[in-house]
Amino acid sequence: MPPLNRLIILAFICLFPATSFSQPAKYSNEFMNVGVGARSIGMGKAFTASANDVTASYWNPAGLARIAGRYQGALMHAPYFAGIAKFDYLGAATSLDEESSLGISLLRYGVDDIPNTIDLIDGDGNIDYDRISSFSVADYAFLATYARNSPVGGLDFGGNLKIIRRSVGEFASAWGFGVDVGARFMYGDWKFGAVIRDATGTFNVWKFNEEKLVIEVADSVFNLPPDNSLELTLPRLYFGAARNFLINDKVSLLAEVNATVSFHGETAALLSSSLIGTEPVFGIEINYGGLIFLRSGIGNLQRITEFGNNKRLVADPSAGLGLKLGNFYLDYALGNISPQTISLYSNIFSLRYVFGEDNK
Predict the structure, then answer these.
(1) DSSP for 87-112, written as a single string
(2) Which phi and psi (to 5°) does residue 13 adopt?
(3) Helix or strand holding residue 7 (H, E)
(4) Is 168 exposed, middle or buried (0-12, 13-18, 19+ CB in 10 A)?
(5) For residues 85 and 89, what is the distance between their CA atoms, to the nearest angstrom?
(6) Which residues pair with 267 in a beta bridge?
(7) What pLDDT does 346 receive?
(8) Residues 29, 202: contact at Cβ < 8 Å?
């Protein structure tokens, strides 16, 4: 990458923690909204109701109650912004008995090898490129999930204990804690799901290394840490309804519609007011013999305000392909394929493995 581009990224990353505190904390921990699993991302992230594998810990913890097999494991690697940023996921789940399941998930979203030019100029005012070092900016999340069936037939519920770790090289770091809760109800070919992410609010507490962060030049001081070291992630509601349609003996169609409700005030969401914003999401999956899966979806429907106060509707379509090879599920998703987006295509791969006799 050209040095200038790297310096721009460095400046943006270093300024991000400070700007996030000078603004309302409603966009904290946005890396938790990227999504895990190429299957669900290929469906436009419409997965609240149909989540029924190890990735349900992320999408709807209640879906973990009915996973197939005794154990499931999954991993995903997704490069974003032409590989500058990378998102990685590792998950595992086990069926404890006929009624309950347990899962753990690890997520990392980071930018590595960022040049640190703070010490580029030595004490005599000379530029010394040997003084350039590098650092990483990364966000981590650990989810511990428990799900079980309820006495009501077809109704499951579950929850996550969420631990957040954010790191900006040697300059700043934060710890955060939160809770997600979810429910899922199945009635015939229909599935309904609801999730409250960050149900209690997720709190991040930052710690700043002033010795590394603060720079004094002549009579000026740069990179002062913000006065407020607390971030709060507001709750979001996710609703979903899905249905299986049997086309013939070998082909079936899964269709799902979701709605995401945020409490951030007026936003670019398709349906927005001074109190809430609502974004619809649509996804489909065509299943051929339980071996080949074709997927498509559309989400991130927003009304963008342009010059002249004109409104323009934008959307983020996606597509995907899945293969079942024995107990392995190999999935691929292609994101950022809209001509309206400024980001390059994102190629997302994930692998899932199911083993052990089913407890259910």
Answers:
(1) EEEEEEEEE-SSSEEEEEEEEEEEEE
(2) -65, -45
(3) helix 3-22
(4) buried
(5) 14
(6) none
(7) 80
(8) yes
- All structural domains of the chain with their residue ranges: 3-355
In the three-class reduction of DSSP (H, G, I as helix; E, B as strand; rest coil), residue 70 is classed as coil
Max intra-chain CA distance, the chain: 79
Asked if 213 contacts 171 with a C-beta cutoff of 8 angstroms, the reply is: yes
CATH 2.40.160.60 assigned to domain 3-355? The reply is yes
* Phi/psi of residue 97, nearest 5 degrees: -160, -160
SS (H, E, C) 229-241: CEEEECCEEEEEE
pLDDT value, residue 312:
74
The pLDDT of residue 24 is 42
Cβ atoms of 16 and 27 closer than 8 Å = no
For residue 91, list its beta bridge partners: 74, 105
Write down the pLDDT at residue 53.
Answer: 94
Instruction: Tell me the C-alpha distance between 285 and 254, whole Å.
Output: 5
Virtual torsion, Cα 262, 268, 270, 272, nearest 10 deg = 60
Q: Compute the distance between CA of residue 359 and CA of residue 166 in angstroms, rounded to an integer.
A: 37
Q: What is the pTM of this model?
A: 0.83
What's the pLDDT band for 5 if we cut at 50, 70, 90? Answer: very low
198's tokens? 């960050």
Angle at 207 between CA 87 and CA 230, to 5 degrees: 85
| Distances from the Cα of 326 to the Cα of 277, 290, 291, 329, 352, angstroms | 43, 11, 9, 8, 11
36 burial class (0-12, 13-18, 19+ CB within 10 angstroms)? buried
Classified as helix, coil or strand, 31 is helix
Please check whether residue 292 is in contact with residue 323, taking contact to mean a CB–CB distance below 8 angstroms.
yes
CA distance 154 to 152: 6
